[in-house]
Design goal:
about 50% helix; 13 strands; 2-enoyl-CoA Hydratase, Chain A, domain 1; globular; Lyase 2-enoyl-coa Hydratase, Chain  A, domain 2; four-stranded mixed beta sheet; 2 domains; seven-stranded mixed beta sheet; single chain; alpha/beta; about 270 residues; 11 helices
Length: about 270
């Protein structure tokens, strides 16, 4: 692996680091302050728009991935005006979840440690999750009189089924990374020291793949559960027609017939 360039700091301490076609976005600490949310959204949008980036890794710092909202900051917002304290959901959490879901390239969550509340929602909003053995996870929301956000009402049920999702959201306890993997919440479970390297290697493989095909697949999977079969079949057909016009598809077919390995260029 080549030496990585020095991370470029954003105002909140969020960093974006490039290694070839992979961008790694790193949260600066466990809690999501207002500034951290703003800068995380900016970093994700920048990676989504950068055509040179073909895969993204999202990870945390130290022993925590993310434990969600900065509650001290939230308490101050409640004291100031309870009617506007939750504006952050529309202004930050929803756009972050939307950016992860609609980014036209794969996003991998490298869950390096504790992952709770909105942090869990952000992790599950990624396409694939690599999780540190021994990490603690949880929903936490109803424990402080709130419900879920950051897309968890969709991603938990989609990953675990309705019954287990309800149990996790209505009974705000914690669960282990090992349980999460056995339930299907994560793609891989690795020692904590190997999380970032494993995610980086996976991202590098995806970054060398057919980016347009990944983007179409993400759209189909995101919209599929809400559409009747006939509409989904129409969407699949339209996606296949678009992909049939890409250079990656034509080159891969030629490579297959020549018994060669295809070289995808993301177009």
């Amino acid at each position: 692996m080549t030496d990585l360039p020095a991370p470029q700091p954003l105002r909140a301490g969020v960093t974006t680091q490039r290694d070839g076609a992979v961008a790694t976005v790193t949260l600066p600490g466990p809690v999501l302050s207002l500034v951290t949310k703003q800068e995380l959204l900016r970093a994700l949008r920048a990676s989504a728009a950068d055509e040179q980036v073909r895969a993204v890794v999202l990870t945390g710092t130290g022993k925590s991935f993310c434990v969600g909202q900065d509650l001290a900051e939230h308490a101050a917002a409640l004291d100031k005006d309870a009617a506007t304290a939750m504006d952050t959901v529309d202004e930050h959490y929803n756009p972050i979840a939307t950016t992860l879901a609609t980014m036209p390239k794969p996003v991998i969550a490298a869950v390096n440690g504790t992952c709770v509340g909105a942090g869990l929602g952000i992790a599950l909003g990624c396409d694939l999750v690599v999780m540190a053995a021994g990490a603690t996870l949880g929903t936490a929301f109803t424990g402080i009189g709130l419900t879920c956000d950051s897309g968890l009402s969709v991603t938990l049920g989609r990953s675990l089924g309705d019954s287990r999702a309800r149990a996790l959201l209505l009974r705000p306890g914690t669960f282990t990374a090992e349980e999460a993997v056995s339930w299907g919440l994560a793609a891989e479970l690795v020692p904590a020291a190997e999380v970032r390297a494993t995610a980086a290697a996976l991202a590098a493989r995806l970054a060398a793949g057919p980016t347009a095909a990944y983007a179409e697949t993400k759209r189909l999977l995101a919209d599929g559960p809400s559409r009747p079969l006939a509409r989904s079949l129409e969407a699949e057909s339209a996606a296949q027609h678009r992909l049939s016009l890409t250079a990656d598809h034509a080159g891969a077919v030629r490579a297959f017939l020549a018994k060669e390995k295809p070289a995808f260029r993301g177009a």
